[in-house]
Design a protein that fits this description.
Radius of gyration: 18 Å
Number of strands: 16
CATH architecture: 4-Layer Sandwich
Shape: globular
CATH topology: Double-stranded beta-helix
Distance between the termini: 42 Å
Strand content: 25-35%
Number of helices: 8
CATH superfamily: Clavaminate synthase-like
Structural class: alpha+beta
Largest sheet: 8 strands, mixed
Number of domains: 1
Length: 280
C-alpha cells in the first residue's frame, strides 16, 4: 500500500488540470493517498497519471475509490455491453465528440466522473482539451451570474443523433431505460462536494433554456457556448501510451480534437452521479 508522501502534484495550468506523480495505480492505495487524489481532482477538475499499464479490472479498482462504476448511459452498447470498463477505437466517433461537452447530461443523474486510459494512439494528433466551468461562471459579470442562477436548461439526446445518425438504436434503448430522451437541469450547478458554482450548459447536449423565449434562449446559449471556449479556462493534453485521466463532469467540460488518422484506442469508465442542484 502506497504512502501519502509519494503523491506529487504538477499543475498543468492555473485553472485546470494537474499531473500526479509517484503513484502506481496497479497497487492498493492508502486512505490518505486517496484523500489527496480526490482533493487534487476537486481543486483542478482533471488529474493525470503517466505510465499506468492497467487492465480493465485494475482501472475499475482504481476509480472505485472515487465512486461507483456504471455502464455509460449512452455508449454502453458500443463500448461496454456488459462491464462498466470498456475499450474501443474512438476514431469512428471523432467528429461527434469534437465539441465542448460534459458526459451524458441528458439523463436525470449525469455521470459524476469519467476516466480514460490511452491504449493505442495515432502517430500525431488526438489530444483532449478540458475547461473549468468554475472559471467560466466566475468570469461572467455579476448581472449575468444573477440571471443564470435562476434558469434551467433542457439537455437532449437529439444533438448527438444529428452528429451520429447511427446511434438511433441507442436513443431508443435510452428512452426505454430513462423514460425519455431529454431532461432539464440548472444552468448553474452547485457542486455537491465543493459547494462552488459551475456553468452547466454545453454544446453537446443542451438545446434550450426553459424560462426564456426561443430567440432569447438561442442567443444566450450561443453566448455561453462561445464563452466556455476561452483559453483562460482551458488546458490541452497530449496523450502518451498508458496515460490515465480522471475528470469531474460536474466542474469541467472537454473536447476531443479530431486531428488524426488511424486508431485511437482508449479504456473508458464513468462513475454514477447525482441529480444536479442549482443555487438556492
Amino acid at each position: 500500500m502506497q504512502a501519502t508522501s509519494s503523491v506529487k502534484l504538477r499543475p498543468v495550468t492555473s485553472s485546470t488540470g494537474v499531473v500526479i506523480e509517484g503513484i502506481n495505480l496497479r497497487q492498493p492505495l492508502a486512505p490518505d493517498t486517496v484523500r489527496s487524489i480526490r482533493q487534487a481532482l476537486l481543486d483542478h477538475g482533471v488529474i493525470f497519471f503517466h505510465n499506468q499499464e492497467l487492465n480493465a479490472e485494475q482501472l475499475s479498482a482504481f476509480v472505485t475509490y472515487f465512486g461507483t462504476p456504471i455502464p455509460e448511459p449512452f455508449l454502453q452498447d458500443a463500448m461496454q455491453p456488459r462491464e462498466p470498463v470498456g475499450e474501443a477505437n474512438m476514431s469512428g466517433t471523432k467528429r461527434a465528440t469534437s465539441i465542448w461537452h460534459s458526459d451524458t447530461t441528458f439523463v436525470p443523474e449525469p455521470p459524476s466522473l469519467t476516466a480514460l486510459r490511452a491504449v493505442k494512439l495515432p502517430a500525431v494528433g488526438g489530444d483532449t482539451c478540458w475547461a473549468s466551468m468554475y472559471a467560466a461562471y466566475e468570469s461572467l459579470s455579476e448581472p449575468m451570474r444573477h440571471l443564470l442562477d435562476g434558469l434551467t436548461a433542457v439537455h437532449s439526446i437529439v444533438p448527438v443523433l444529428q452528429r451520429m445518425p447511427s446511434a438511433v438504436q441507442r436513443a431508443k434503448a435510452n428512452e426505454q431505460t430513462y423514460g425519455g430522451i431529454e431532461y432539464a437541469h440548472p444552468v448553474v450547478r452547485v457542486h455537491p462536494e465543493t459547494g462552488r458554482k459551475a456553468l452547466f450548459v454545453n454544446e453537446g447536449w443542451t438545446t434550450r433554456i426553459v424560462e426564456l423565449t426561443k430567440a432569447e434562449s438561442s442567443h444566450l446559449l450561443s453566448l455561453l457556448f462561445e464563452h466556455v471556449k476561452s483559453p483562460d479556462f482551458m488546458m490541452r493534453w497530449r496523450w502518451e501510451p498508458n496515460d490515465v485521466a480522471l475528470w469531474d463532469n460536474r466542474a469541467v467540460q472537454h473536447y476531443a480534437v479530431p486531428d488524426y488518422d488511424g486508431e485511437r484506442v482508449m479504456q473508458r469508465v464513468v462513475l454514477a452521479g447525482d441529480r444536479p442542484c442549482g443555487p438556492r
